[in-house]
Structures are given as C-alpha cells and as structure tokens.
Hints:
The protein has two domains: about 45-210, no CATH class; about 215-340, no CATH class. About 20% of the residues lie in helices and about 15% in strands. It contains nine helices and eleven strands. It has helices at about 60-75, 115-120, 125-130, 190-205, 210, 240-245, 270-275, 320-330, 350; strands at about 1-5, 45-55, 90, 95-100, 130-140, 150-155, 160, 180-185, 260, 290-295, 310. The strands form three sheets. Strands 2, 3, 4, 5, 6 and 8 form a six-stranded mixed beta sheet that branches. α1 packs parallel to α8 (about 320-330) and α4 (about 190-205) runs parallel beside α8. The longest helix is centred in the middle third of the chain and has 16 residues, at about 190-205. About 45% of the residues are buried.
Amino acid sequence: MIEIKATQAAQPQAAPVSPLTFESPLAGPHEIYLPIVASKLVPANAQVLVIAYVGFTPTYQITVLAQLLISHIAEGTSFHKTGSPAISFEMVGGGPYITYTTPPTNTNDGSWNLWAIYDQYNICNRVAAEGIDEVWIYVDNQPGHDYGWEWQANGPLWKTGPHGNSENDDTVPPDCGKQMFTMGFNFDAYDNSELESWAHSVEHVAALTEESGSQRCDFYHLGYYGVFNDSNPCKNYGINYSDVSGFTTMADPPTRTVAVCGEVHYPPNTTAAHAHSYDYEYAYQYGNTTTVQSRCMNWQCSTLTNTVAISGNTWGNTETGYLIWWMQNVPGLNNDSHGRDGSLRPNWWDFRLHR
Length: 355
C-alpha cells in the first residue's frame, strides 16, 4: 500500500526537437510527465547504514555482500555502461554494524519492528548528523530473524507499508524528515537476491505518479503484474501506447512482437502472456535463450524502429547480469532517452535516491 503525504507539482519543460516519428494517442495536457531534473554533475557518494542481526555464523560475509551490492548498484546506474554511476554508496562507519541478537519484532505478527530498530541505532538523529541516505538490514534465516520485508520507505513525500499506513504501523520505518528506503536482506542468500530486492524498489519508485511526477505508463504496460482490469494505471492514459513503448513491455507474439526492457522477475524475452499469468514456472528465466527484438537499449518514445535482437546471452544468462543490464537502461545521468513530448527524460535515479 502507498500513502501519499505530499506531491511535488512539476511541469514538463519541453525543448525544441525534431518531428516525432510516432505520435502518442494520448490527449493532452499531460501534466504528470516526469519533470526535467538538472543532474549533470556526478553526485557525491551516498551514505548507507548497514546493520546485521547475526544468529549464527553466516554463510556469506556481510561486508562482502554489502560491498558487492554497492558495486552492482554503481555499475547498474551507469547509463548504458558509459560515464559515471548515478548512485555510489559507501557504508557509514566503513562497515556493517553487527549485533548478535534477533531483531526487534512487533506484537501483531512477529515481523521486524522498524521503529525499534531505528531507535536502537538512533537513526533519525544520525540522518541529519551523518547524512544517511538509506538503511540496509541483514538477517539470517534462523527462527526470529527471517520475517521482514524486502523494502520499506518513509519520508516527507510518501510511505509504503504491507499492513496499511497508519502512523503507528511499526513495520514501516519512521519519517526522519528525508525520503528514505529501508532494505531487508537475507545474508544466507547471495548477492543476486539483494540486488533483486533493490531493483524491486526501483520498479516501485518509477511507477509512483505522485512521488516522481511521472506518467506511469512510460514505465508500466498493459497487464503489469497481471492487472488487466480497470485498476490498471495505464487504463486512462493510453494502454495501447504504453503496451508498445512502456519500459517493462515484453514481446507477446503474434500481436506484439517487439519487447522493451521487461520486469525484474521477467526478462523482455519472456512471453508476456506467461509473465502475466502469475505462473512462476515462467519467472526468473534469466538464461532464456529465446531471441526477440527489443528497443530497450535505445528506449525512445519518439520512434518504434530502433530495435536490436536480444536473448539471455545479452546479459550473460544470469540474474545478476540481467538486473545490472536492466538498470543500465533506466534513464540515468546524462541519458539520451526522449519522453512522449520529445524532451529528454530526467535522471530517474534522482527519484530513487533523494539527497
């Protein structure tokens, strides 16, 4: 669930462009385009507070896992593998804070009590003092350790929570006056698992109209996560257009034979009908050798002819390889991707990491 606390009104800043070769069927005005964000300089390193609750000798060293994730995020936020990363994390204090106890839990269902964790580590006070931008919590799968959430967020703009969004919902972290994500990782799973969780948080932000000012149909497609009914966010904003050009679009032959970038669970060479069936037999097929045409690597809403052949070989047939490739095609720092009105898209990583 999502509670919008406030919105940031933003008007599109269109620049003169060449005539579009594909006209959007949407009727204007399109007041919820992504705003242009002036991010031309490489940002300073972001500060991540890494906390670990250790119940026994971990399968993988927490410091190694955190450093791997930091490396993958830097690589993934480098637009098209060129230039500087849009997000470079460094750990507060130079390493994880490890405690040999179980994490605090709430009395409702035994899941993590994030308010208690924030209080335990004095996080809200440290956000301002130490410039903390994000919190990562590592646990193992021992009893009392393993019931948390992949990601949660809170701040002045919006918050998310699985049990509703009352102010007393301790499964959502407190609002420390800064829009922040709190990630939950299992350190008995390898780095592809934590990178997947982090990528899911990216999906969420890209689809939040009110938070980012985005036209969600630039990201969604018809049937996103199996939603074909009137609650589909693209229903009122041109589902046919979105279904062709939305970032997460997959090929669905014979009616739609060209994919874009796919979803975290479903690469773009997954048949869309399979992905939207909720049949997890077709999920996580990162080594799928099916070859399809995709416009992911030159995602432009101004043309539909810029396609290349892709398959699992494109990202090395691994989950980590796919997620990094997927992230590298998200419009990032100094990207050259044009939106529906022809103007350059902003750096979307500015919406994922508020600084």
